Amino acid sequence: MTVNFKRYGAVAAMAVAGTMLLTSCAANEGTSAAGSSDAPASDLAGDISASGASSQQAAQEAWVAEFQGANPDVTINYDPTGSGTGRENFIAGSSAFIGSDRAYKTDEIAEATFGACAPDSGIVELPLYISPIAVIFNLEGIDTLNLDAATIANIFNGTITNWNDPAIAASNEGVELPDLAISPVHRQDDSGTTENFTAYLNEAAPEAWTNEPDGVWPLEGGEAAQGTSGVVDAVKGGQGTIGYADASRAGDLGTVAVQVADGSFVEFSPEAAAAVVDASGYEEGRTEGDLAIALDRAGAEAGTYPVVLVSYLIACEQYEDANTAEVVKAYLSYIASEEGQQAAADNAGSAPISDTLRTDVEAALELIS
Amino acid sequence: MSVAATPVENALTSGRLPKLAPWGILVASWVAAAVVFGLLAAAGSTDFSLVAAIFWGTLLYVAAIFVVSLLIEGDRKARDRFVTALVVLAFVVALLPLISLVSTVLANGLARFDLQYFTYSMRNVVGAGGGASHAITGTLLMTIAATVISVPIGLMTSIYLVEYGRGHLARAITFLVDVMTGIPSIVAGLFAYAVFELVFGPGIRLGIGGAIALSVLMIPVVVRSSEELLRLVPNELREASYALGVPKWATIVKVVLPTSVAGLTTGVMLAIARVIGETAPLLIIAGFTQSLNTNLFDGRMQSLPVFVYQSYANPGTDAQAYIDRAWAGALTLILIVMILNLVARLVARFFAPKLGR
């Protein structure tokens, strides 16, 4: 038995060691990745941990990949914990910067001391991830429908229950609407997409949608699905289903063109989404680096798409650690640059920010030290 | 001439199906059902479903074997065949979830089950490509660390319970171990997080924290299974050992443990299989990273379940690439558990004392 133990023990140990050896090196790590053109080698270094909105995850992947490619000694870990947890982490000081689907409220800023920052430091909030939210549906043979905010609200709150309802037919002349029950799908989890979608319904159709904007779906009934993927799958899997999801995930599902203030109908597009952010001003009573957008969802003009998710990157004005400040500043500058915005558009389907907004963001970035 | 045409009169003189006939009929029924479903799928009305084909094929087998046996062997034998076929049906129904699961994971997971998957991490990878070497390494390291922590604790607890424990303390331990078995995995994760947060401050993410969360889940499983196995060791062996003047500790180490080593290994492997697929605790305490990290004591560590979850939950525009990676991750996880079980079988076979020789 002792012999057995030695013999087979050795074999087992070799097997384990072999597996470890095989997996303990990642072929793509340790060398500076391709794509970092002939730019001078960067001297930035450090590990930065960040967390926050899961909506930014795909964009952050692209940004981190490009940024780490250009600065091989930097590691940025973006943990998609959700916006709420991200904001708590930033206050607790465990994340050097965060992604959040909403800016901090002014009273939150007044009360909180941000653990990640130097004492008495302000914060910068940059709207660098703008993504249209598509209202998606699954009806055979129909690719697009024109709907106004009140009709969308009534569909989602269960007042309109059939696709051949006169309210839907009124704005869709010539479309053959089936006699089919509508089954609305909503997010089961707390999400920035839900918050922005309900905010749109609440502002653009206050009579039909009386619930306050909230990250948690406020109504009973309807089908609940987990995450964006869950909503898209549920809409795809049913007949007569309707839901809302990040526009990049709409795929070949039918999408709704929403009515804006002047009565025209606008299909979602990155440009139209960026345009609505430009058309809205900043919130008042904020510091210089705090670019919280006061989205004007109800008064959106022609050519602007009002159902958008504006997600922020939030960082400190002064960091305790100079190196952290340098890396965060460089990273955020990259995100704000045209290449950075294009990388996010390619991998996450977001809307690149306009040059006007970029100028303001760059001014705000100068505050970081 | 007329002998062959004589009607069957009793079971003993009646005809008999060849030994392989039931198998032949079973396979034929499966093929028939597969053909029917294949034609349906070809006609475009449904997707081909392996599970449905096997289920209806087996049902067809129950009917077919009864009829065939009734014609050739008479009704007495036919009833016997019928009930046997029902047992087969029950067995197949019990296996259906497994068949369905394995076939689905294989069909979806093989798309990315390539060399790159095992040699690349996700660092600097956008969209398609990349791999899970960081997640596989993390899962193996954290599981090994959890095993190293829980097996000694669990084994010694059960030795105490079986060999030494009497009275209130032993009963209290048994009760608490039972309670621990029911701890939801997320609570174990929060426990580990709370412990490390006290020491290292908020937002701490460590691979070893994941290992500790997993060992909280693992210890009760190890205790319960090894306790049962140690109790199975015949008392005569212990008494014989005592009679030769061997002290108690030596009896446990040299007699009790070797006798039950096969079962103990199986128990440990089952405990590993129980925790290796845990997502929630690792999400909290081991964190999420795209890069390879081989140091349990420094920084975030990716694991396969978290990798699968994140790939599915937050894909980019090229969603299919993320979903493919998630399926390949699920397949890898199943394979790891399967290999561990095979190793456990081998250990059990080779280490078990040769009784009766």
Which word captures the global form of chain A? globular
**Number of separate helices of chain B:** 13
Q: Largest interface, with Cβ-Cβ < 8 Å?
A: A-B, 50 and 48 residues
Q: Helix content range of the residues of chain B, please?
A: over 70%
Distance between the termini of chain A: 67 Å
Main sheet properties of chain A: 11 strands, mixed
Give the percentage of residues in beta strands of chain B.
under 5%
- CATH level 1 class label of the largest domain in chain B: Mainly Alpha
Main beta-sheet strand count, sense and barrel state of chain B: none
Task: Find the structural class of chain A using helix and strand composition.
Answer: alpha/beta
Structural class of chain B: mainly alpha
CATH architecture of the largest domain in chain B: Orthogonal Bundle
Mean pLDDT over all positions of chain B = 88
Low-pLDDT parts of chain A are 32-39
* Low confidence ranges of chain B: none
Continuous helix count of chain A: 12
